[in-house]
Amino acid sequence: VQLVESGGGLVQPGGSLRLSCAASDSLDYYDIGWFRQAPGKEREGVSCINSNDPRSDGSTHYAASVKGRFIISRDNTKTIVFLQMNSLKPEDTAVYYCAPTCILPYDYWGQGTQVTVSS
Question: CA–CA separation, 52 vs 76, rounded Å?
Fold first, then answer.
């Protein structure tokens, strides 16, 4: 499945952004993960939403660094997964990527979307 990230931008500390991970087909039966990579750092997992297929439960998971601030969700069309990011901090600055997996490694990254948190 081909995924396209969007929604990044420049925001002040404490602000919010909503990222979108969009596909042309339903994502309902895929695990979808959001990952980020800051300059000079390894790519890391941010959040994941499990598949809604009968063998899974559609549960959500968050890295400790974003828990309570970020919310991952699916839209009603099942073709977009959102990452709502609130109370943003400078350390959230990174390129954000989505992928049809909750775990690394993954080899088929898109272009990502830049999030910059700065005053």
Answer: 13
What rounded mean pLDDT belongs to the chain?
95
Q: Are 35 and 94 in contact (CB under 8 A)?
A: no
94-109 tens-digit pLDDT:
999 999 999 989 999 9
Phi and psi, residue 97, nearest 5°: -130, 150
- 49-58 per-position pLDDT tens digit: 999 888 888 8
Q: Which H or E element spans position 35?
A: strand 32-37
| Helix, strand, coil share (%) of the chain residues, nearest 5 | 5, 40, 55
Count of all residues that appear for the chain in the document: 119
**Paired residues of 19 in beta bridges:** 83
Give SS3 for 74. strand
The tokens for 69 are 């601030």
Look up residue 108 and give its two tokens: 């088929």
